[in-house]
Amino acid sequence: MFTLFKVDIEQFQIPEVLSLTTDIPHELCLLAAKELKQHLSQNQFFNHNFGLKEENDLAIIGKMFGVLIVKLTTGNLGYLSGFSGKLGGKNTYTEFVPPVFDLLTEGSFLNAGMQKLNRMNEEIKATKLDHNKLKELKAVRRIHSTTLQNKIFDQYHLLNQAGMSKSLRGIFSNAGYKNPPAGAGECAGIKLLQYAFLHNMKPLALAEFWWGQSPKSATWKHGQFYPCCKEKCEPILQHMLT
Predict the structure, then answer these.
(1) Is the Cα dihedral 4, 5, 8, 14 positive or negative?
(2) How far apart are CA 129 and CA 231, in angstroms?
(3) Whether the Cβ atoms of residue 2 and residue 70 lie closer than 8 Å to each other
(4) Which element (helix H / strand E) includes 54?
(5) Per-residue confidence of the chain (242 residues) as pLDDT tens digits?
(6) Whole-model pTM?
(7) What does each C-alpha distance from 91 to 25, 83, 85 come to in angstroms?
C-alpha cells in the first residue's frame, strides 16, 4: 500500500506534527494527490462511473479519495491512498488501504442479515389488508434492522497513535451520540490513519478530495479538497489522534 513519490521531494518541508486539511493541503499532499488523480484518470478497471465520461452506463457515483503522507520506521517517506465506502462494488484494491472492517466478506453475517431483511420487506409488501399484522411485521423489521446495524458498528475498532483500540459505539457514546451515524468508520481519512497505526507508520499530513460528479444533495466539486466531515469523522479523530 505504501507508495514512494515519483519525483524528488528533498525541497519539500516535512511536517513536524500531523497536518490535516483545512483550506489548503500540505504541499506533499498536493503532490501525492496529483499522482493519485493521474492514476484515477488513466485507470479503467474500477468498474465505477464517476460521471466524467458520458458513454458509461453505470449509475453515476462521485467518490471521496484521500492521501496520507507517512514515514516508515526505516525513514523512507511516501504516501498511502484510500477512498470512502466502496468503489465499483468492491472495497479492496491493491493500490488502496483496506477498510477497517470488510463488510463484503463472502458468507458474512451482513449478507445473511440483509437477506433476512429483504424477506421481511417482501412479506410486508404482501400484507396489505391486515393492519395489525402489518404493524407487527414492521416492528419486527425495525428491531432486526437496528440489531444488524449495531452488530456492524461492533466490528469497528479504531486505533489511536498510542496503539489503544476503541469500539466505534464507544467513541460516539463518549462524544454524546446515541448511536454512530451510518457509514461511520468508512471515510477515506479514517481508513488511512487506521492502516498507518496498524503498520507502525508515522502519519505526517492528510488530505481528501472529491472525484467525479457531486450528488444533488451536496456541493462537492470534482478535484477539490475538503476537510474531514464533522458528523462522521470528528469524534473518531478525537480518539485516533490522542
Answers:
(1) negative
(2) 41
(3) yes
(4) none
(5) 899 998 889 889 888 888 886 678 999 999 999 999 999 988 766 778 888 876 566 778 889 999 999 999 999 999 999 999 988 888 889 899 999 988 776 557 777 888 888 898 888 888 776 788 888 888 999 999 888 888 888 889 999 988 899 999 999 988 888 889 888 999 999 999 999 999 999 999 999 999 998 887 778 899 999 998 888 899 999 999 98
(6) 0.86
(7) 25, 9, 7
Q: Which of 28, 35, 32 is nearest to 10 (CA)?
A: 28
Distance between CA 49 and CA 234 in Å, rounded? 29
Euclidean distance between CA atoms 144 and 114, whole angstroms:
10
Q: Please check whether residue 182 is in contact with residue 148, taking contact to mean a CB–CB distance below 8 angstroms.
A: no
- ∠ CA 147-149-155, rounded to 5°: 105
Q: Which three cell numbers stand for residue 240?
A: 485516533
Grid coordinates representing 84? 470512502
Task: Indicate the SS3 state at residue 38.
Answer: helix
Cα–Cα distance, 121 to 83 (Å, whole number): 31
- Beta-carbon contacts of residue 149 (< 8 Å; ≥ 6 apart): 179, 182
